[in-house]
Amino acid sequence: MSSSEVEPDTLDLVCQLDNVQGMVDALSLVRWKRHQDSVLELSEHGIVVIVEESGCLQAKVYLKKELFVSYEYRAEGRPRFGVSLGVFVDCLNTFSVSGRSSSIEMCYPGPDMQLLLKSVDSTDACIYAEIRTRIPDTISWDYNFEPAGSTPLSFTVKSAALKEAIDDLEWPGSSIQIVLQPDPPSVQFRGEGHGDLQIDFMYYANTDLLIAFQCDRLVSYRYKYKFLRATTSNMPGSVIKDNRGSKLTIGRGGMLKVQHLVSVGRPTAQHPHIDSAAYQLPSRIAYIEFFVKPEVDEEPVNDA
Amino acid sequence: MGRICHLFLTKDHAFFLHNLLNGDGVQSIAQFRKESLFEDYRISSQNDDRIAFTIDLGLLHRALRSSVSVCGHVTTATNRLQGYKSAVIQDVPISKPLSRVDVVELQSAIDMAQDLPQTLVQGPDLHQLQSFVDRLKHVGELLHITITQYGDLHLQLLNTLTTLGVEFRKLPVVGVQAHVPTGDQNMTAQSRTKYAMEKGEALSVQLSLKHFAKSLQCHLTKPDSAFYGITPLASCLTVIFQFFIPGTRQTDKSISLHCRLPVLDPGSA
Asked: Which structural domain, as residue segments, surrounds residue A57?
């Protein structure tokens, strides 16, 4: 039970956050399994949390320093360490008391290289956590996402609609084909397995669902359903409530990038009449990116 | 706490007792003075006027609830029917009365359960504590609880990957008290606890988080406050619920409810 009293000067990072629930939401989005390892990378710009599976799926949560009430970074280089994502989220969750915003302080490293969390709301009740860290594994492959050509191949769809579509594709299962075509501008999700299911988003017909669309040629790639599902399976309620959009981009070689936005602002319960998506400052948004490798057993169609 | 309990009736009291005879698990003792439950109460048995049996609380609760609604109904019906009354009788099955030996054992278990911790601290808001404990359930199963003589209640959960805890300070203390050491305001919860243990001003136990969560369910009885203490030799954690006489700040002495949580390890005290 050694104390975690450490000299502030020896710490790489001391930061304070006033909306724990937002951080729980952002990290939960990349928690597609109960037990999952993650790597935290600290820098003067903020914290990046990286999660990976089977060399085919990687997710990154960008917690920019603007999300924190204070962010004091003193390290040389960019410290990286591994923590269990499940433990990190469960610990953060104990700080989040429903109905009121709770402020916490996060420090690294503790005396035994732990990640230290403590509540700073009240002097008479203090919640604290010390999370064991480990030396991170090397990332097995570099998710060098490069554009597929001069025109980006991308579309932005309402997050709720994307999640619903991917949930529905569970029925055919295993492998999902994503087709983008410029004429008529549309996106197709096609599943073949136990049965066939095709979901079309037509750009001009559903501008409220398919918000943006950029594509100058037909492209088609297949992705494993379980990886595609991981990109939306733990979408927090706030993303749906805030009516956010998710951006999907297909890069060189068919690498799929899925980007979500999660609000980490102070709860806006006192302004129920204001559209919270519009009310949030852009700086109080956590960016989440998934990278999904395509299945390779099939010849891609028309990828110039 | 569980469906089946012992109902133990004596000349002056009725007790509802959980887990007092079979030992393991959370023990709970609810004691009512006869006047607080019954208008008319007579008891006689060859065993010093004491009777005990087991009863299914679910069935008893259902019978009581329906009699409450029937009573309400009867009152209005009586008014209308000018003096006619109806009686509804519900039988709640009970076990055979406990043997003389078992009754003696039950009585001595009650007597043993009456020994109070030397220091009790008045717990924080029960709902707040429960919401915290519900979240802790995801993280681990073993809970360390430390209570200091200057009103700290420290809950800590340790496992291989994390240490997670909450410390409540400056809680009201009943019983043996010590002065808050000066200059420790800025110390961490762990250091304060360690320091207090070294000075003999705190007791610490390790127990099952599930048991602790179960004892918090007692807030369903709407107590006015709860007190936590560790018995001498750190043999168990005692939680005492306090009820006020409605509309006052005076303790209702005709009702008492307390739980005893078994210790999993004698603790580092």
From this structure: 8-131
Nearest to residue B228, comparing CAs of B188, B269, B170, B171? B171
Which tokens go with B60? 């008893």
C-beta separation of A87 from B161 below 8 A: yes
State the average pLDDT for chain B.
86
Q: Do A5 and B187 touch (CB under 8 A)?
A: yes
Residue A166 shares a structural domain with residue A225? yes
Secondary structure (3-state) at A136: coil
- Whole-number Å distance between alpha carbons of A97 and B130: 11
Evaluate if residue B72 carries a pLDDT over 60. no
Q: How many angstroms separate the CA atoms of A93 and A82, rounded?
A: 19
- The string of DSSP codes covering B116-143 is PPSEEEE---HHHHHHHHHHHTTT-SEE
Among the listed residues A300, A291, A275, the one whose alpha carbon sits nearest the alpha carbon of residue A51: A291
Is there a single domain that holds both residue A282 and residue A174?
yes
**B137 at A interface, C-beta within 8 A:** no
SS3 B84: coil
B148 — pLDDT class (breaks 50, 70, 90): very high
Exposed, middle or buried: residue A186 (CB in 10 Å: 0-12, 13-18, 19+)?
A: buried
Q: How far apart are CA A156 and CA A65, in angstroms?
A: 26
| In a shared domain, residues A161 and A102 | no
pLDDT in tens, A146-196: 888 888 899 999 999 999 999 999 877 788 999 999 989 999 999 987 788
- Residues A105 and A235 grouped into a single domain: no
Whether A60 contacts A46, CB under 8 Å: no
Q: Are residues A187 and A237 in the same domain?
A: yes
Examine residue A112 and state whether it is found in any structural domain, yes or no.
Answer: yes
Chain B contact present for A82, CB below 8 A: no
Q: Are residues A120 and A243 in the same domain?
A: no
Q: How many residues does chain B have?
A: 269
Report cis status (omega within 30 of 0) of the bond before B181: no
Contact B164 A128 (CB under 8 A): yes
Q: In chain A, which residues have their Cβ closer than 8 Å to the Cβ of B156?
A: 1
Q: Write out the H or E segment, with its range, that includes residue B76.
A: helix B57-80
By the CB < 8 Å criterion, does B194 face chain A? yes
The predicted complex's ipTM stands at 0.83
Q: Which residues 198-227 of B are in CB contact (within 8 Å) with A?
A: none
Domains along the sequence of chain B with CATH: 4-113 (no CATH), 119-262 (3.10.150.10)
Tokens of A70: 């204070």
Are A228 and A207 in contact, with CB atoms under 8 Å apart?
Answer: no
Using CA atoms, how far apart are residues B201 and B118, in angstroms rounded to an integer? 11
Q: What is the CATH number of the domain that holds A202?
A: 3.70.10.10
How many folded domains does chain A comprise? 2
Give me the residue from A90, A98, A123 closest to B138, CB to CB. Answer: A90
Q: What is the CATH number of the domain that holds A92?
A: 3.10.150.10
Interchain proximity B190–A93, CB inside 8 Å: no
φ and ψ at residue A126, rounded to 5 degrees: -130, 125
